[in-house]
Amino acid sequence: MIRRIEEASMNAWPALQTILYDGWVLRCADGYTRRANSIYPIYGSTDDIEEKLAYCHTLFRYRGLKMVFKMTDDVFPPDLDQILIDLHYLRQAESSVHMIDLSAIKIGETPVTHDSIDMEDNWFNAHVRLNKIEKHAATFKAMLESTVQPECFSRIEHRGRIVACGLAVLEQDMVWLFDITVHEDFRKRGFGTQLIYSLLRWGRNHKAHRGYLQVMQENKPALALYKKLGFKEVYKYWYRTRS
Predict the structure, then answer these.
(1) pLDDT tens-place string over residues 124-164
(2) Which helix (H) or strand (E) holds 111?
(3) Is residue 241 part of a domain?
(4) Are 134 and 128 in contact (CB under 8 A)?
(5) Do the domain assignments include residue 243?
């Protein structure tokens, strides 16, 4: 189950370069987001672990990136986490995947949102501004443009200004939600809920059965909101990297 969801999440959030190496998926995207610049050790391996680590280290160094592993309870080899601990890889960014059954919730109309299946300039510029990712803007745009699956770009405007935005990607019978962001001056007004419901409704209209999102464990307000809306944790994941 974890492996299938990890595959879907990689498809929904594509890296700019992907290499398959003896059961490991190596992803690079100029350093923008950990999940697009890390190693997913999700398939069976046969090669010597030391040789694999050396190969990955060389590749990531060539790309100007730290070597990062995205870890779950279902990795190969099964003792990889302990191997990385022994090599002084630090555990960072503890997060979890949450799921909601779209058939079990009632999604009302969300008239304050504006949804588009095309990435419009005003949505993109607002997303860059709200998430403060100006230096990664070109990389982020390239990632979105390389996505094969259908996408939905949702935004909320207030007095002609976009104050909240989010993204959904359809993958198989799942709809993945990313970057639900509300300007700090407009939080606790229900805009986050409106965005989530709008994106989930779009997914359900396109025959998705479940909604998924990923959240860091330290983000208590987001965790509380997702729980209130009916999301349930499916599994945890974390990253291993050297300082």
Answers:
(1) 999 999 999 999 999 999 999 999 999 999 999 888 889 99
(2) none
(3) no
(4) yes
(5) no
Which domain does 224 fall in, by range? 100-235
Final residue of a structural domain among 63, 94, 125: 94
Q: Whose CA is closest to 156, among 165, 148, 144, 146?
A: 165
Please tell me whether residues 87 and 167 are part of one structural domain: no
pLDDT of residue 25 exceeding 90, the answer is yes
Domain assignment of residue 240, yes or no? no
Domain boundary among 74, 94, 114: 94
- Report, as an integer, the average pLDDT of 220-236: 93
To the nearest 10 degrees (0 to 180), the angle between helices 121-131 and 137-146 is 130
pLDDT of res. 71? 97
Contact between 196 and 168 (Cβ < 8 Å): no
- When pLDDT is averaged across residues 51-65 and rounded to a whole number, the result is 93
Domain total for the chain?
2
- State mean pLDDT over 91-109: 88
CA distance 53 to 6: 21
> Based on the domain organization, do 112 and 56 belong to the same domain?
no
Whether residues 165 and 219 share a domain: the answer is yes
CB 174 within 8 A of CB 211: yes
Q: E-assigned strands of the chain?
A: 17-21, 24-28, 39-40, 68-71, 90-101, 113-116, 151-158, 161-171, 174-182, 210-216, 232-241
In a domain, 13, yes or no: yes
**CA–CA dist 226, 233 (Å, integer):** 10
Shared domain for 115 and 186, answered yes or no, is yes
| CA-to-CA dists, residue 227 to 127, 136, 231, angstroms | 24, 31, 5
Q: Are strands 113-116 and 151-158 parallel, antiparallel or unpaired?
A: antiparallel
